[in-house]
Amino acid sequence: MKRLSLLAGCALLASCKPEPPDLPEQLIPEPNVAQVETVVYLVGDAGDALEPRSPLIRRLQADVEAWSEQLPGDSAVVVLFLGDNVYPDGLDLSSEPAWERDSTVLQGQVNAVAGPWGRRRAVAYFLAGNHDWGDYRGDAARLKVQEEFLDRRRAQGMRVRLQPEAGEPGPALVDVGSHLRIVIYDTAWWLLAADRNRKTRVLTQTEDMLQSAGSREVIIAAHHPFRSASSHGGNVAFWRGLGVRFLLARSGTLLQDLNSVPYRALLEAMKESFHVKRPLLFAGGHDHALQVIRHDEADEPRYTVVSGSASKVSRIGHIPGMVYRASKPGYMKLFVRHDGHVELFVVAAPNPDFLACAGEGEALQRCMAEYTAAFETRFGLRLR
Amino acid sequence: MKRLVLLLVLIAATSTPLRAQDAGGRVLPAVIGGVAGVAGGGYVALSLVVAQARAGTYIHDFKDMFGWRSAPVIAGGLLGTGLGIYSPDRLRRAIIWGYGGVVVGGAVGLGVGLLVWPPPEGKWAGAAIGAGAGLVIAYIAGALTAPASGDLGKSDAVVPVMIRLPVR
């Protein structure tokens, strides 16, 4: 018994980690409509959010619709779904039993731009995440199904598309307004593919896009983030999975972790490209948290954001440069002002309980109304 | 340091009860052998996965460890249980040597990893692979070199039999 107590004590001791330092609160006021040229939403890892039960999806829909109504001009509102749009294995074929659930999840995201104003002024780009591929051998069949689904919705008037196209690595270029360029990748392709020539071509195209951006600020958008303080970034407790997960993370054995050899090669290659022009922001999901990280090195983007808690939430640690972190459901939005200033805001719920509503009928409706209203802007920072 | 303490406690917890083998027959060694075998097999599975990754075949998620990749866990459990029944002496030596193999193999692997692969993951990968290899080699060597006196079926093996007679 004594030995057992000692063993348990040791286990507890080894698992204790110091709490990450508190970060100073930062919240600038949101700009008024007259000052805003475009709004870009960053929503990641929504693949478990069922629209009728997801307060976040409902809040996002209302937010997008409100800004679409207020901002004049075509494509003034852009929504980037940062991958892992359908868990666990991408969108299944319509003949399969999983189709009903999978398609409901994806339709909820499509509906973010399906309101009366959203249809006219908002556009949504869906990026592929590793789960959207649904196949670890590099077969893009599931991704093709998702692309066809989005194509059908586009034919019905909703401006949605998979970007880059299914099975293509990108980069895809989207210029927004007069101040912003978004360069989009399927980073899951990079991790799965062994085609060196194609990878070289991706980097050449990236440099061209950065070079030709001129005075536009560049946002890199991909499922896999540039930096993260959550589990894919190596923040794994020693005792999780009896130490196995810890060792897998430390040794770079998990392909989807930032320190695996292919992922590291991807980031190094990107950094090479950034010498041409330093991007303002690298936006990713993948880890289920909200993170804003400032970088000082010239070959890194000025900021990294991780916005991957649209339907899942996981623990988060601290890394140098971090200015905001939250393990809460939420999303981010960028305001690009007419004068070229760019501001980042984080919209989040008070805690992880707000991910989904249970119950049926009136109880469900009450919960949805209450939880949706609980999402607030909790962080705001001028990036430029 | 904390992990070192933990390791020592684990060694003590799993090896000391073997002294009670005579009292408990071979059931206790079999159970201990099974548990230690499962743990060791788990570690060997981890080492194999790390080695595979270094060769370019990655797993995507922790969950991918389950399935055929966890075969060493079952093999280790069966081997440990079998060894516990066949020869508690061999099991004891295999476990103790196995722990030593983890430490020595891990240290050697760490050094090799530092030399062969880029930091900081290289040393961890080397240590994980080395520890797994060290465990297997030392476990087998320990089991083979232990005295055969306690082996099942050997004439000098003592299996205690107790008969209770009521005395008024």
Describe the overall structure:
The complex is a heterodimer of chains A (384) and B (168). Chain A has 384 residues and is of the alpha/beta class. Chain A contains 11 helices and 14 strands. In chain A, the strands form 2 sheets. In chain A, strands 4-3-2-1-12-13-14 form a 7-stranded mixed beta sheet. Chain A has a 7-stranded mixed beta sheet with strand order 5-6-7-8-10-9-11, with helices on one face. In chain A, strand 9 and strand 10 (303-307) form a beta hairpin. The longest helix of chain A is centred in the first third of the chain and has 16 residues, at 55-70. Chain B is an all-alpha fold and 168 residues long. Chain B has one domain (2-13, 25-144). Chain B is elongated. The interface between A and B is medium-sized, with 28 and 25 residues.
Q: What is the subunit arrangement here?
A: heterodimer
When the domains of chain B are counted, the total is 1
Largest interface: A-B, 28 and 25 residues
Number of helices of chain A: 11
Described by the principal axes of the CA atoms, the overall outline of chain B is elongated
Query: What string, H for helix and E for strand, traces the elements of chain A in order?
Result: HEHEHHEHHEEEHHEHHEEEEEEHE
Summarize the main sheet of chain A.
7 strands, mixed
Q: What proportion of the residues of chain B is helical, as a percent range? A: 55-70%
Whole-angstrom Rg of chain A: 20 Å
Are there runs of chain A of 5+ residues with pLDDT below 50, and where? none
Protein traits:
heterodimer, A: 384 residues, alpha/beta, seven-stranded mixed β-sheet, 11 helices, 32% helix, B: 168 residues, mainly alpha, 6 helices, 69% helix
Write a brief structural summary.
The complex is a heterodimer of chains A (384) and B (168). Chain A is α/β, with parallel strands linked by helices and 384 residues long.
Task: Compile the SSE list and pairings.
The complex is a heterodimer of chains A (384) and B (168).
Chain A: H1 2-15, E1 36-43, H2 55-70, E2 77-81, H3 99-110, H4 118-121, E3 122-126, H5 130-133, H6 141-155, E4 160-162, E5 172-176, E6 180-184, H7 187-192, H8 196-211, E7 217-221, H9 244-250, H10 261-273, E8 281-284, E9 290-294, E10 303-307, E11 322-326, E12 330-337, E13 342-348, H11 361-374, E14 376-382
Parallel strand pairs in A: 1-2, 2-3, 3-4, 6-7, 7-8, 8-10
Antiparallel strand pairs in A: 1-12, 5-6, 9-10, 9-11, 12-13, 13-14
Helix pairs in contact in A: 2-11
Chain B: H1 2-15, H2 21-24, H3 27-54, H4 71-86, H5 88-116, H6 121-145
